[in-house]
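User: Batch of two.

Assistant: Item 1 of 2:
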Amino acid sequence: MKGFKKLIGIVLTGLIFLLCNSGVYGQRTYKKLVWADEFNYTGLPDSSKWSYDLGNGCPNICGWGNNEQQYYTSMRAENARTENGNLIIEAKKENFKDSKYTSARLISKNKGDWKYGRIETRAKLPAGRGMWPAIWMLPTQWNYGGWPHSGEIDIMENVGYWPDSALSSIHTGAYNHSINTQKTKGVNRKDLSTAFHVYGMEWTADSISFYIDGLLYHVFKNEKTGSEAWPFDQEFHLLLNVAVGGNWGGKYGVDDKIFPQRMEVDYVRVYQ
C-alpha cells in the first residue's frame, strides 16, 4: 500500500510538472538566436548594438520622458559600462548640465529592430525610493503616429517605493496610462534587487506574452480591431534604462541617501 501511494505521488508530481511547463513553455515558438549581447567584455557598451538617448526626461524639451529628474548621458562609463560579464547602468547623484542626477538609457534602434520574436533579459534591479528601472520596446518607424498610437511594450518596470513588484504593460491608442486603460500585470518577488531574474517577452501576430524566470503571467491578445488596439505589426527596438523620479517613479520623492544605484544586466537574447 505504501509503495502504491508512493507511485501515485510520483505520477502526480510528474503530471503537475508537465502541466506547469506546458503552460510556461508552450508559447515559446521562437528558437533561433538572431541577436544577443552577453556583455563578456570590458568598457563601454558595444556601439554596433547600442546607442543612447541623451538628455533629461522632460517631454516639452526633448519630446519624450515622464518628467524624470536624471540626465541621460552618452558614452560615459560612469553611467553605462561593462564589467565582470555584466552591463552596468548606474544612476548617480551629481550635478550635470541642468540635472542633479545622471544615468543612461541604451537603445538598439537601427542596430537591433524586430517584428515578432522572443526577448530574454537577465537582470538585477536597483533599489530605493525614486528608482525606476525598465526593460522595454518602442517602434522604430512610428508608422501609426506618435505615442501611444504606434505602441509601447514594457517587458519589465519596477519602482523603488514598490520594491517587490515587477510589472509588464502594453500601451496603444486604445490602451494607455494617460486614459487609465493600459494593460498591466505584475508579479511579486522579494529579491528583485539582490538576485538576477530573467524577464522575457514572446511576441507573435496574435499575442504578446510576458514571463519571469520562465513563468507566464501576462498575455495581451490581438483583438483584430485595427492599429489603435494592435499597432504591433511593425518593427520595434529595445531600451534599457534606469530613471530617477518622474511621474511614477518619483510619486513619493527621491531618497538621496541611496545613491549610487545600478541595474546589472547579464545578457540580452533575441530569438526568431
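Item 2 of 2:
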Amino acid sequence: MRTPNGPAARIVVVGAGFAGLAAVDALAGSGADVTLVDRHPYSTFQPLLYQVATAGLTSADVAYPLWAVARKRRARFRRGELTGVDRERREVQLADGTRIGYDYLVLTTGVSAAFFGVAGAAEYALSLYTRHDAVVLRDELLAELEYLTADPSGELRITVAGGGATGVELAGTLAELRNIALPATFPEIRQERMHVTLVEAGDVLLAPFDPALRAYTLHQLLSRGVDVRLSSAIEEVREHEVVLAGGEVLRSDITVWAAGVAGPAGMSALGLPTGRGGRLLTGSDLRVQGDERIFAAGDIGLIEGNPLPQLAQPAIQQGTHAAAQIRRLMQGKDTAEFRYKDKGIMATIGRRSAVVQLPTRIKIKGTIAWLAWLVLHLVTLLGHRNRITALVNLSWRYLTWSRGGGVIIGDETPPPRHEHAPAGQQARPG
C-alpha cells in the first residue's frame, strides 16, 4: 500500500508484545515497509511467566524468535532499544545510534513494575514482567530450597505483593509446589517450613471479577495454605522484611512485586505527553496527543477519559486498531474511534482451579474453568514447538509433582549467603 504521494509508507512498530505483534499482523500484505523493533530478539508470552518462575516451564517455552515473526509477516526485525523520537525528521533513535525513518510510528513498548514510591521496593523486590525476571525468581527460589535442605532449623518465607491475576496465580502455584512437590523433591524440608503470603492493599482479590468469583479465589488460596492479607498496604520493603502500613513487620526471604505497572524508564525523555504511571496519553483513535502520525497501543497507551484494563485482549485489539487506522490514513480517510470488545477475563489459582468471567454474564469456576484457561493459553502461544513443549512440561508437572517430577531446574550457581540478615535470623541468599 502506498501513501497518497506514491512511495510505500514506512511503518515502525516498537515493542513485540501482544499489541505490537497484533499491529504487525494487521499490516501484513498491506504493501507498506514495516519494521518491528524490540530490545530482545524474542517475544515473551507473559501470562505463563509465573510457570517459568515456579520451575514448571523452561524460559524457551514462552519465547519465540522475532525474526521468524517478521519473516512470516513480510516485515523486518531490528533489535534495539528505543531512546528517542525525532518528530521533525520522523525518525526513531536506538541506543546503538541507529536512526530509522518512519511515516507512521506505533509505540507498543509495554510497561514495567510500578513501585508507587514504596521505599526499598525497587532494590529488594523481584518483578515478574520479563523472561529474565522469571528466570531470576526461579533460580532464587530453588537456591533457597537447596539451602533449607542443609539447615534443618531454617524457614523460607515468600511474600507476593498484589492481589491481581499475576499475584494470585503465583501465590497459588507456590503453595501447590510446597504442598505437592516439596515432600518428594526436597524430602528434608517439612512443608510447614515454607510460607507463602499474599499482600493486597485493597479489600478484595481480582478486583475486576464478580464478587462470587473473588470469594471463590480467596477460599481456594486459603485452602492451599496461603496467608492472604487484604487491606494491607506495604509501606517499606527491606532486604529480608516487608513493613505493612501500621507498623507490622513480616519476615520475607523472597519478595515478589506484582502490585502494578508503569511506563518503562526513559519514556518521559521521548518528549511525548504522558499521564498516570508514565503512560502515553492518546486520543480515542489511539494517536498520541499532539501528533498525527504516532500511535500508542497496549499497556503503554492511556486513552484520556477511558482507561482500559491492562490485559492481553485490550492490547491485541488496540494493536489491530492502530494498524487499521494507519491503513485509513494512507488511503486519505479519517481515523475511527477505538471501541473495546469485551471477550471476558480469566485467572488460574492452581491445579484444577480457575475463574472465568464472560461478557454474557456467564461465570465459571473450578476444573472446567481451569481446563478452559489451559487450552486458551496453549493455543495462543506463538509457535507449534512452544505449544507442544509447554503442553508436555505442564502435563508432566501436574502428573508427576507428587513423585518428584515436574520441577525444571536452571544451571546457575546458587548465590552466596548474605553476610547480614535480620536480627535473630540466619543469613539467607538474596
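The first helix runs from residue 18 to 27.
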